[in-house]
Design brief:
It is built from 14 helices and 15 strands. The chain is of the alpha/beta class and 409 residues long. The strands form 4 sheets. Strands 4-11-10-9-8-5-6-7 form an 8-stranded mixed β-sheet, with helices on both faces. Strands 12-15-14 form a 3-stranded antiparallel β-sheet, with helices on one face. Strands 1-2 form a two-stranded antiparallel ribbon. Strand 5, helix 6 and strand 6 form a beta-alpha-beta unit. The longest helix has 20 residues. The chain is globular.
Amino acid sequence: MRELAERLGVNPNTVASAYRTLRERGVIETAGRRGSRVRPKPATTARDAVRVEVPQGVRDLSDGNPDPALLPPLAEAFAAAAEQGDREPVLYGHAPVEPGLVRFARAGLDADDVPDGPVTVTSGALDAMERVLAAHLRQGDAVAVEDPGWGSVLDLVPALGLRTVPVGVDDEGPLPGAVQQALTGGARALIVTDRAQNPTGAALSAARARALRAVLADHPETLLIEDDHGHHIVDLPLYPLAGATRSWAFVRSAAKAYGPDLRLAVLTGDPVTIDRVRGRQRLGPGWVSRTVQRAVLRLWTGGTVDPAAVAARYGRRRNALIGALARQGITAHGRSGMNVWVPVPDETGAVARLLHAGWAVAPGARFRMSAPPGIRVTVSTLAADDIGPLSEAVGAAIGPRAEESRTFA
């Protein structure tokens, strides 16, 4: 910056201000002593732009949505919440979180061995992650993220002026060696999906959770963020990492089991983190609608969704597709959730050929940084009669794989 200031004949503070503006706008990213570089694309360019246009008559298995038939009806829950609002209006200065929702959520977290901590509510999982990252990190800090991983997280991190550090994943979650390398290399935060990882369906096993806790014990200052969006659609137990570091946050979303439009997630964490999130939230939206909170509480407690039955139906669809592909010599992954990840040698060609055959799938480029190519198939709406034709189309589009790999890195 001093050299540039001298060349331009301006004050070094002017150059520093220009660099800061470029970082804030996502044009450049800073890597400490390694200097700054221009990003390959604007930080606000969403990966959703890398999507398939689905023509009429083509089955859309690319969107990652839950099965609408497995979502509960909302009318009764919202009518009851609105009636309660008429009797007990929520006004400025009232508590931002519904007390009954806190009690119910905390009981569920306790049952899953998530450490005790204050509970608040955000407008979905991504909103929670953004607020936690902003509460702890500064522009230029590095965040370790799963690769392949949720495309929205891969968009969010650089949009906040942070740097992404890819961490390899297998069926049991992030690879401990890759996490160790990322944290030793300076990553200040780690984001982990506990179950129903998007796009691979990975879920933390007990052994993997122990291994990751051992890694985090050597890096106690790491900001740990866990995403349990698969709550109530997954039949695998939760093995949380929460509490392995001083600063941690655990977010549980209602989107997949109860409906994406509810825009509600429960967030717990260490007291400092949650206090910072609440304080910043007060200066923005203030709170998440108590009417929505009351409706979600009724949905959670009303018995309109049988989590075991929902998880079993998604499981049958995943396993049927994975098994059909295996019989063709094609390796596919989907330990939990509603997606199946299929490694492919030629991502663009596979997506195009499947589209021509009447099936739209998501290109892996939406979910990966340095991981090999693949395609994501959302199985949530598949019927038994779909499995055969779909697996045959995938086989024709990509051909058999020569060897099986348990990792996606």
